[in-house]
Automatic annotation (TrEMBL):
Organism: Parahaliea mediterranea
Alphabetical UniProt keywords: Lipoprotein, Membrane, Palmitate, Signal
Pfam families in the cross-refs: MliC
Keyword Transcription carried by entry: no
Secretion signal span: 1-19
Entry protein name: MliC family protein
KW Signal (keyword) present: yes
C-type lysozyme inhibitor domain sequence ranges: 47-107
InterPro entries: MliC, MliC_sf
Length: 117
């Protein structure tokens, strides 16, 4: 059933979209161990976007991305529909199981969830 597969990711994105916050990007060096517990409060997702794979943890008001060049913490920003996170250089927009990742001038469209909690 399609609804049961889409609902967990959509719920995580919808819940995360209910708040805003101000956090600065965190480099992989500044992040310490980079360990974020994979719990229902911090769901872990793996996305694939046109050959670019990354991992994301959703928390209230922010998401943490593990990209090829290190870890980034993106605060949630206002979005008319779906959930959007951005630190000004890296941005992720998601709606349901789909998304788009922008890193500087590079855009990775057609992001899909490969693994979820």
């Amino acid at each position: 059933m399609i609804v049961s597969r889409i609902a967990p990711a959509g719920l995580a994105l919808t819940l995360a979209a209910c708040a805003g916050g101000d956090t600065a990007p965190v480099s992989s060096a500044a992040a310490g161990s980079g360990a974020v517990p994979d719990t229902p409060a911090n769901p872990k997702y793996t996305y694939e976007c046109e050959g670019y794979t990354f991992t994301a943890f959703y928390r209230p008001e922010e998401m943490t991305l593990w990209l090829r060049d290190g870890q980034r913490v993106l605060p949630q920003v206002r979005s008319a529909s779906g959930a959007r996170y951005s630190d000004g250089e890296v941005e992720f927009f998601g709606k349901g199981d789909k998304g788009m990742l922008s890193i500087g001038d590079s855009q990775y469209r057609d992001c899909v969830v490969l693994t979820r909690p």
